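User:
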Amino acid sequence: LTILIASTLLLPTITTAGDSHLKKGATVKDVKAMSEKDQTALALSAAPAHISKDAGVMVFGADGKLTETRKSANGFTCIPTVMNLPDPDPMCMDAASQQWFTDITNNAPKPTNTVPGIAYMVRGGSHFEKDGKVVMSGDGAKIVKEPAHWMVMWPFDAAATKLPTTPNPSGTYIMFDGSPYAHLMVYQDPR
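Assistant: Predicted structure:
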């Protein structure tokens, strides 16, 4: 299974303290230059231990594509980074979220997962904001750091759910509201 990661993919990114093998301000290029062992450790840091211990792993090969290096025993797959931002942002996701991720990466008009998916970003993340709104594109937007969180990858409508569309003290909001890729963000450390 191989997924090509677009350098402008717009999902939350992750920041963390620690990991001596990671340089502060590392980029996707730096992650790709890491050994398979270091990429695997970074990828597995995305989820709670009870998920990551049996999760599959995909790492970047010399061709820049993600390639499976460890089969999943629990339906979750972890990757070492999602976006081309200064900090590595590993994510661990179930099969439905992996389909969602593949669809957004390949610029599909809408996600094709047929059931809700769960994804973890224990190391935190980032999103783009412009004019006080979370946006999918970094064009003219600022990068905003996010805390540890988990996500439900399923179409959510803020008007129907009455949930907010921007980060707030409750820690829950709809990211990308109004787009087919709207999904639930939960700023809660899942460990």
